Amino acid sequence: MQTIIALAPLVSHRLCLAPPPFPRHRLLCRRAPSIRLPSHRSSTTSFRLLSSFAASRDSEMATEDGQDPRIPKIASSIRVIPDFPKPGIMFHDITTLLLDTEAFKDTIDLFVERYKGKGISVVAGVEARGFIFGPPIALAIGAKFVPMRKPKKLPGKVISEEYSLEYGTDKIEMHVGAVEPGERAIIIDDLIATGGTLSAAVRLLERVGVKIVECACVIELPECKGREKLGETPLFILISSA
Ligand SMILES: O=P(O)(O)OC[C@H]1O[C@H](OP(=O)(O)OP(=O)(O)O)[C@H](O)[C@@H]1O
Ligand SMILES: Nc1ncnc2[nH]cnc12
């Protein structure tokens, strides 16, 4: 069961978005996230963010009250930009987290603490933002990093997996031989929305006999119901943005 711990909102107002005036090519979750942004980071408005730790199915908590003190700081370092890349989309921008050395380190540490010593030999990162969080986690837990790329980027022989977008399809690819059957993997990305990307990554690795221990993201947009698309594969997130 997912555990969500609401932080005291700094502001109460929420944005209500009108339905999109045009079809979307890519389902980016349209919602009113709520995080109050430090004024130097926000060009627009205030939001509220719900934070949770260990929102995986086993609801493991970092501290007795379930709230790791690092989480609120990480949450407040993430910027939410309305209407990017299209009107109505609340874009969760992790580049501001990367500028905050403490928040970035804490983010990596939280994942490392969870996965170190768990017999994981593969950290698979999904292009592009999984390439930011995956490698430092892989190095710290002594696993290899396997990039899961957008089509036609990898030079060697690839195995690919297609996934549906609201309109059309997309694909991710991995080099043949990057992993061996029987290896244990985690899959890292910055954010899960509809779950299309992560579920394709799961299928790709499972096709070559890899055991997916868990998918891990910094942010979940629960209203997009990506968790449902992952089925039985566990999902661990640091922040649930609602
Ligand atoms: O759960 P989903 O609905 O599949 O959405 C989540 C994916 O969307 C974003 O990447 P995007 O596809 O925008 O690519 P980018 O990181 O290359 O910009 C994000 O980094 C995830 O990979
Ligand atoms: N709202 C969002 N913000 C950032 N990345 C996304 N990927 C899908 N939806 C997203």
From TrEMBL:
One Gene Ontology MF term: adenine phosphoribosyltransferase activity
Record localization: Cytoplasm
Record's keyword terms, sorted: Cytoplasm, Glycosyltransferase, Purine salvage, Transferase
GO process terms (BP): adenine salvage; AMP salvage; purine ribonucleoside salvage
Source organism, top-level taxon: Eukaryota
Alphabetical list of Pfam families matching this protein: Pribosyltran (PF00156)
Catalytic activity from the UniProt record: AMP + diphosphate = 5-phospho-alpha-D-ribose 1-diphosphate + adenine
Pathway noted in the entry: Purine metabolism; AMP biosynthesis via salvage pathway; AMP from adenine: step 1/1
Protease listed as a keyword: no
Transmembrane segments: none
Residue stretches making up the Phosphoribosyltransferase domain: 109-228
Alphabetized HAMAP family for the sequence: Aden_phosphoribosyltr
Subunit structure: Homodimer.
Family: Belongs to the purine/pyrimidine phosphoribosyltransferase family.
Protein name per Swiss-Prot or TrEMBL: adenine phosphoribosyltransferase
